[in-house]
Design goal:
Elements lengths: L1 E6 L7 H18 L3 E4 L16 H7 L4 E8 L5 H14 L4 E6 L5 H8 L3 H4 L6 H13 L1 H6 L13 E6 L5 H4 L5 E5 L11 H15 L5 E9 L3 H11 L11 E3 L1 H15 L3 E6 L4 H15 L6
């Protein structure tokens, strides 16, 4: 089983505190054997960054093995060409270690207007061309020679490309993902997410993907939780936070390492995936580092020691 991490950068507003701790967190995750760390693009007052891609070279440069990425870029408010420029350069600087997750999220109307510089009426429908933008982005990254002939240049020529991920709350969007030939990450902690296992849909997608692209897609499931030495302390950490508006509380994993291990093993069987991505809900830096140490010790069984 592989386990990665999702980080939103939520917490106290002190700049130095958050920057140091996200670097320490990524370095410790790299050392412990976590598969990847993804940074979210959210526009909330208590979030340290709104442009997570700027942190990728910092984290990648401070680590050796772990994959670093964004999950996900809110493509509806960005230029696919600009995103392709950024991530092709990153993938060239850090070969095989950059992930690009794409989401169809909805930030506030004020953010949309600031990003797109359009009228209020035009901003109301900013998500309408998401599918075309996603298709354009994949083309910009994968069809270098054709684009070169059209004088659409995305340097460096012959450079690397990131692993592209489509993010969703269910498997309903798999049909749109299939022709793009990208990986899929499914969240079960967001409000409105589908908690049904739907292994049949996943298997059908995998078979069709292989038939179309000649390779298997990567698929993982993202959850949220808190791991501590005891279940009582884990619950105490959760209580300190109050209600998480972004989370489906019924899907959280909160408890000791044994509970995490047993729950993930059951989820691996139920969902039919081999990788899980955890949004660690702990704010305190010491407890947060300790939580991934406990998970690694229990779930990785010394493989990365």
């Amino acid at each position: 089983m592989k386990i990665g991490l999702l980080e939103f950068g939520a917490g106290p507003p002190e700049v130095k505190w958050m920057l140091e701790n996200v670097v320490d967190y990524a370095c410790k995750a790299d050392e412990l054997g976590f598969s990847r760390i993804w940074l979210g693009e959210h526009y909330f007052l208590n979030h340290f960054w709104y442009n997570p891609e700027i942190l990728i070279p910092v984290l990648a440069g401070m680590t050796d093995r772990i994959k670093i990425g964004v999950a996900g870029i809110l493509l509806g408010i960005h230029s696919p060409y600009r995103v392709a420029l950024t991530f092709k350069m990153l993938a060239t600087l850090f070969p095989g270690r950059i992930d690009l997750g794409i989401a169809n999220g909805t930030p506030s109307q004020k953010v949309v207007k600031l990003m797109l510089q359009k009228s209020d009426e035009e901003c109301l429908n900013f998500r309408d061309d998401f599918g075309q933008k996603f298709s354009d982005l994949v083309r910009y990254l994968r069809e270098e020679e054709k684009l070169w002939e059209e004088q659409v240049l995305i340097p460096p020529h012959g450079g690397g490309i990131p692993d592209i991920w489509s993010l969703g709350l269910s498997y309903n969007s798999l049909g749109k993902t299939l022709p793009l030939g990208v990986n899929f990450s499914r969240s079960i902690f967001h409000l409105g997410s589908d908690r049904n296992y739907n292994r049949e849909k996943l298997h059908e997608f995998q078979e069709e993907f292989f038939a179309l692209h000649g390779r298997m897609p990567e698929v993982n499931v993202t959850f949220a939780g808190i791991c501590a030495k005891t279940s009582q302390y884990a619950q105490k950490l959760l209580n300190k936070m109050g209600k998480e508006e972004e989370s489906n509380l019924s899907t959280l994993i909160v408890g000791c390492p044994n509970k995490f291990h047993d729950t993930l093993m059951a989820m691996q069987e139920d969902y039919g995936v081999d990788e899980f991505i955890m949004l660690n809900l702990i704010y305190n830096a010491k407890d947060k580092i300790n939580s991934i140490e406990l998970i690694s010790e229990k779930c990785f069984e010394g493989v990365y020691a």
